[in-house]
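Table S2 (continued). Query chain:
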Amino acid sequence: MDRVVIVGCGDIGRRAGLLENEGFHAWVGDLNDPSMLPDLPVAQSTVFYLAPPPGGGFEDPRVRHFCKVFSEKPPRRLVYLGTSGVYGDCGERAVAEEDPVSPATSRARRRLDAEQCLCVWGEERGVDVMRVRVANIYGPGRLPVAHLEAGHPLLREDQSPATSRVHSDDLARALWTVAAAGRGGQVFNVGDTEPCSMTRFFKAVAQLAGIPVPEEIDIERAREVMKPLLLNYFIESRILNSDKIVNELGFEWQYPTLREGLPASI
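Corresponding output:
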């Protein structure tokens, strides 16, 4: 593969790159300020763009700064890690990549703006841009242990719809698969094979970690005591049809369900 550049190298980026163990070098820059972006070796590389948008508004200025700075020496390929939030609330209906987007939150609208900006830039600059959309990511260091240990309540399970999630190691492997075998303009959903409610997920983590399962409260009480962002995670339903990455690119799940993924996360 080409030289690889990871922009926004947090947990998933470290899993994808393994950094120093694979000969990676680290640069520190500021995507909020184009004058503070380092002289990254982006030209003719494969870029994993994993940086989230900043808060507020409906646009992603960080993506725009990246595109502006590296327009003259663009990469050959770019994989953007986005969110299934661009589909909106799916009402427990599995969505595929060709389904229309309908972001319902400002956060999702910023993500869709980033996708659209990169696609236009890619067409203008001859960059193969591919998008990966995920719902909820879990794995080592990404479990709601603090929430559970604090005894915060959960939404009643019969009021918490099913949603997709993916183990962080599977997501990192999916990014490599898309970079190696995907084509410019393609979108790939990445969610494991067994969606379940956020309440069931929290309860499974509690049982595996030996933490008492918190009480469950109804939606009216949850609106009073739960933070709006957290409540959104409990009530939104985004079930992803991920057949495309499996059938077209040959991706194989290491953790197809929580039964395999949670023990590998503790």
